[in-house]
Specification:
- The structure is a homodimer.
- Chain A is of the alpha+beta class.
- The first copy, chain A, folds into three domains: about 25-70 and about 125-285, BirA Bifunctional Protein, domain 2, CATH 3.30.930.10; about 305-415, Anticodon-binding domain (Rossmann fold, 3-Layer(aba) Sandwich), CATH 3.40.50.800; about 420-490, 2-Layer Sandwich (Translation Initiation Factor IF3), CATH 3.30.110.
- Chain A has 14 helices and 26 strands.
- The first copy, chain A, has helices spanning about 10-20, 40-60, 70-75, 80-85, 125-135, 180-200, 250, 275-285, 315-330, 345-355, 365-370, 390-415, 425-435, 445-455; strands at about 25-30, 35, 60-65, 70, 90-95, 95-100, 105-110, 115-120, 145-155, 170-180, 210, 225-230, 235-245, 255-260, 265, 270-275, 305-310, 335-340, 360-365, 375-380, 385-390, 420, 440, 460-465, 470-475, 480-490.
- In chain A, strands 3, 9, 10, 11, 12, 13, 16, 22, 23, 24, 25 and 26 form a twelve-stranded mixed sheet that branches. A five-stranded mixed sheet of chain A has the order 18-17-19-20-21, sandwiched between helices.
- In chain A, strand 12 (about 225-230) and strand 13 form a beta hairpin.
- At the A-B interface, strand 2, helix 2, strand 3, strand 4 and helix 3 of A face strand 2, helix 2, strand 3, strand 4 and helix 3 of B.
- Strand 5 of chain A pairs antiparallel with strand 5 of chain B, so a sheet runs across the interface.
Chain lengths: ~500, ~500
């Protein structure tokens, strides 16, 4: 290996950081809790973002852009939402710097440039958006309003981790307005399904769709729907949420509409979001001790070609043949990189692209060319084979689909093996400690019990699965009666 | 007209605001100086952004993302840059809110959550990026580094105008690092040319490429290249800048590289950016008293089809024929909207799409259908004609190109008529006051004279055109000798 990686068994958390940093996805920055997304990581995000954006547009949504700042008086208007985010708010209090009279070349905040009203940097944009919607919505004809925004948000977290939890992160937030409760609930579920389809089909990560308990609900929502994924260390990760907001924000910002009969009512709302956190889920769902494993559909580079030169005179013919292959791959829409740089040896390159999770690697020397073959290595299974150059592009295109499917199947099998049904407290604790994964157990439905379980085991209720089977049972902690099982897990 | 617009002659500035707001491009927000970009305006920005992004990638650049925040100590490292932006900096000083003990449900900034070091919200990202590059660049092998970022930035302006000057705006900023001065200068000019090509070919706005004088240079740059456009009111608008930063930031952040001979040197830098301000330029270069006129290449909707129903029974056949036409337009990649909503009458729709600058409008009633024609209206010339449905998609595709070219030609003719060569102070002042536009005049090359001219006339030197003719002359203000003419104008 060119770069030493920590193994998962040795230190899972260090393994994760190694993959992010040595895989060149992201880097720490000089700002506490904020990261730099490097070009390779950003190209991955662009592929994810572009596909999500297509799916949002296909379901009738439009993009817009709202201010980064939320005046404090607007921020506090919806009380539950404000209370939920107050502890994490970065606040702008001044709008000017000036020269430090004591130290030449240094600056201080100008005390005379204090804002009359402080500005919160958006941790989420319901407040500023609903304050704007007030001016846009008068009648049922203005509804539904189906708007999405791609933006940066800031939540001042004390413990941060690259991609998983950073003070600033990139995300999208959909904010829709509807004339009826039914339509808003339908929208909430529709977008949950868009997220589930995206994460499963594009990221090859299986998810469980469900509803959060009151304890885990988004601050200001009536109901929070979520998709939950399972990481290789047995911890769950919330991959996306879609909130039915009822009329809470409409009431806080006085947004009413007149219906066809000229009756006034408050507007119904949803909001939904996924973020760069998805990249953390992607890494932990698929990768191994040699590095990242990226699903072909979103990999920045799907195929890398490494020439094996033996002496200067082999360069010309190999480069020429490689360019033919590249053209045939590109003609099928495959993202291909040719690495004929002489800065490093083939072995170093092999290790680097393995670390960076490129799905397919092709290597070709003079001997291969004479035999009209290339060496093909797939990243997911590490299988190597000799492949005829004739028809190679079609072979690779097929293989990329196969890799995508194989990654999903593997992750699905792992996830399914790690949903354990338990009926006693001992089993519950033992499963969490020894096996991990999702634990399907009866719960008496009270926030108090949920809280106690969390205190004793660090496990939370990840969700009440949609279309959950109703069955009589006894709560795993209290023994009180229960009508359904819910999914517990320790989580990111 | 469905919505009353102010005419240009009446009040140019109000006309501009009417177009932005009634054309549904943007709206004021609750935050001082910040705007909301509405879906129609954002779709326009997306078309501009996507094309620029392709051009950046085609010239070898990659996207990345750097933090919103710049710690004050980093911000002040490059002194000229810091000095240039200090007066416009929004500053985060606290990271938490808490309940107001005096007022239930209200929040205050928690005085115990004061940051040890204040964070500046990026007005531009050289500081945070060059601090990061320090960790990425060791050897000539790491160069060039060709990175771009799409981001929001904040400059606390006292007088704001929608799109043209807002406290927060969206932009892209390229930040590149090079081993030699020559290569950095070449990059600076290359990106200036990318901007010029984009603005001319996609926005249909002719520009003059030039170099700024020292007075007008970007804070921290050795040279600022710019493209300057002319608005219909005779004022100039800086549409994009590309900076050769020399080794200033490399020195401020101690970024050195070892060359092939293992000698250490500071890295050479460029930065370049365009912003949502371009939308302001677009509006003022082309639009008229009836509303926006958008160039087809970036118009969110290129063709709108309005059905003219006479009674319910005409709906079915007209919708069916319209859907055929839509399919044929879409097959040619044309962005088309069918407005068969019954919320408003055809006349109201015509006025609305005229206001919103849709390049081509098709209207069709039963009679038209029987005659196998549609009524076609082009927005730029307001010409109307009857067009056969047979071959309509091809006709429209050709027409869209023609409109794009016609808009450019018209703007170019206007711009060229409004470059006036003057040789005396009287002429200079008279031209500015009575005609406006660019004034080509001799200047003695001193910042003092430039400053005096600005004080007396509000005109600034927009640029020294690239490949400027060298000729002897006398400064229009001082009579001192001069070797070339420069372009003056009043500007946005």
């Amino acid at each position: 290996m060119s770069k030493e990686l920590t193994s998962r068994a040795e230190d899972y958390s260090q393994w994760y950081n190694d993959l992010v940093i040595k895989g060149e996805l992201a880097d720490y920055s000089a700002v506490r809790g904020c990261m730099v997304i490097k070009p390779y990581g950003f190209a991955l995000w662009e592929n994810m973002r572009d596909q999500l954006d297509r799916m949002f547009k296909d379901t009738g949504h439009q993009n817009a852009y709202f201010p980064l700042f939320v005046p404090k008086s607007l921020f506090e208007a919806e009380e539950k939402n404000a209370e939920g985010f107050a502890k994490e708010c970065a606040v702008v209090t001044h709008y000017r710097l000036k020269g430090d009279p004591g130290k030449k070349g240094k600056l201080i905040v100008d005390p005379e440039a204090k804002l009359e009203e402080e500005l919160v940097i958006r941790p989420t944009s319901e407040a500023i958006i609903w304050n704007t919607y007030k001016g846009w919505i008068q009648s049922y004809r203005d509804l539904p309003l189906l708007i999405n925004q791609w933006a940066n948000v800031v939540r001042w977290e004390m413990r941060t981790r690259l991609f998983l939890r950073t003070a600033e992160f990139l995300w999208q937030e959909g904010h829709t307005a509807h004339a009826t409760k039914e339509e808003a609930v339908e929208e909430t579920v529709k977008m949950l399904n868009v997220y589930a389809d995206f994460v499963e089909e594009w990221m090859a990560v299986p998810v469980i769709k469900g509803v959060k308990t009151a304890n885990e609900r988004f601050a200001g929502a009536e109901d929070t729907y979520c998709i939950e994924a399972l990481m290789q260390d047995g911890k769950a990760l919330q991959a996306g949420t879609s909130h039915f907001l009822g009329q809470n924000f409409a009431k806080a910002f006085d947004v009413k509409f007149s219906d066809k009969n000229n009756a006034l009512d408050y507007v119904w709302a949803t909001s939904w979001g996924v973020s760069t956190r998805l990249i953390g889920a992607l890494i932990m769902a698929h990768s191994d001790d040699q590095g990242l494993i990226l699903p072909p559909k979103i990999a920045p580079v799907q195929v890398v070609i490494v020439p094996i030169y033996k002496g200067e005179e082999s360069k010309g013919p190999i480069d020429a043949k490689a360019n033919e292959i590249i053209a045939s791959l590109k003609a099928l829409g495959i993202r291909v990189k040719y690495d004929n740089s002489d800065n490093s040896r083939p072995g170093w390159k092999f290790a680097q692209y393995e670390l960076q999770g490129v799905p397919v690697r092709l290597a070709m020397g003079l001997r291969d060319m004479e035999n009209k073959v290339v060496e093909l290595a797939r990243r997911d299974t590490k299988e190597k084979s000799s492949m005829p150059i004739e028809g190679l592009a079609e072979t690779v295109a097929k293989l990329l689909n196969e890799i995508q499917q194989n990654m999903y199947n593997k992750a699905l099998a792992f996830r399914n093996e790690n949903i354990t049904t338990v009926d006693s407290w001992d089993e519950f604790v033992k499963t969490l400690d020894e096996k991990g994964g999702f634990v399907s157990a009866h719960w008496d439905g009270t926030p108090e019990t949920e809280e106690k379980i969390k205190e004793q085991t660090k496990a939370t209720i990840r969700c009440i699965p949609l279309d959950n089977k109703q069955e009589e049972g006894k709560c795993v902690l209290t023994g009180n009666s229960s009508t359904q099982r819910v999914l517990f897990a320790r989580a990111y």
